[in-house]
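To fix ideas, we close by showing one paired sequence and structure record:
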Amino acid sequence: MSRDPQKPVDEEIERAERDGEPQPTQAPLEGDLDAVADELEHEPGENGGDANPEAEVLAARVEELEQALTEAKDQSMRAAAEAQNARRRAEQDAEKARKFALEKFVKELLPVVDSLEKGLESMQEVDETHREGVSMTLKMQLDVLAKFGVEQIDPQGEPFDPQFHEAMSMVPNPELDPNTVMDVMQKGYTLNGRLVRPAMVIVSKSA
């Protein structure tokens, strides 16, 4: 019986094809993967693992320093506010002292002004030259007082104001509205808006 010469060739081709096919690789077992994952999970890293006692101490120290800084800023702001208030009060006190330092002196000087006014009123029959001299003296006196913040209160015909007027008496007068200043017995004065002496007045009332 004759041998087929083609068969050995076919066998060689089949063997070559089998040798050329890629062999399947063995997949890792599921248990091995779980073990690797568990190992990676428990492996200490930069942000994981057990807490560092030194880091905790440093964090607590930083928190203490931040709190101390906040308290220091608050105390500094309070101290600045108190200093500003103290400076403002000192300025106000100095301003008041400057404005009203002459109050006592003005009170002592007012009787002189009163005397000049009364003397001028009584000089009806005196020579005009003498009257003019007294009038000029009185005017100069009042001008000097006004220069230093002294103002005269002469409320003739004005409504009665208890803050600046002192009523000597009340007289019925149908020609005037009630509580109107009928007559000024003594003029009043203020120093920079503050009452130095009230005006002594007679006030009208209804009949």
Notes: The mean pLDDT is 81. The longest strand covers residues 165-172. The helical segments are 6-20, 30-42, 53-100, 103-122, 128-147. The beta strands are 150-153, 165-172, 181-186, 188-191, 194-197, 199-205.
